[in-house]
Amino acid sequence: MSINYFRYALGLTERLHLPARSIAAVLTASALGSCSHATDVVPAGPPLPVSYALRTVSIDSLADRVQSWRLRPAGTELRGLRLLYDTPVSGYPTLGIVRSIVRSNHRLDPFDALVFATRAVGLAREHNLDPGFFGSVLLQESGFSPDAMSPAGAVGIGQFTLDTAADAGVDPFDWRSALDGSAALLGGYVRAYDGVYPDPYAAALAAYNAGPGTVAYYHGVPPYPETRDYIGDIYDRWARIIRDTTGLGKRRAKRTG
Length: 257
Fold this sequence. Notes:
By secondary structure, this protein is mainly α. Helix content is 61%, strand content 0%. The chain contains 14 helices and no strands.
């Protein structure tokens, strides 16, 4: 299959679930790697045409892939997707977030990044958050790693402490629950601070980082250098995602050049 086909098939990810064509293309490509183990299927000789290879896909392998939420770590079929995310992604915030993920977290498989980003964008819209904002928070917190752990004891993709997770009814070790909890918590903060502080997003980040009690005490973002740096880093990531998604920065650079 051509790069253009994957670009088209995997580009349509602005929804909660992955497109059926994306999953079909991914599963078909990854199942091809298992065909070499079936000695009675592929005869010796010169390379076979793609049409023949597609007729000899292992159904058992394909079924295994369908029943798993992710590709096996040994799979390399999708490593080329890193190149795909270096192509223009105008109009697709999901792919803009994926591009930032694979650039900042090289340990995360690109397919996993696509799954996590698709879920994050859907939850952001559900809670009236800007998708780029929510994606930037998760990038700053964990790099979208579901097994991330900080020295302070925060765990998972949303970096909940066990006490905070218990209060929010979140399982921090389950990436789906952690994403749901993060989106709900940030969305609640933004709604609560809208009209109260000049920048409700900055106040929400301060609450997420230092606690809502601290925001209330200081009537906004506290003077803690760590919290202010945290907010600044997330705003930088957010601007990068917006630039990658819209292409505004590149167009401006061309005009000034």
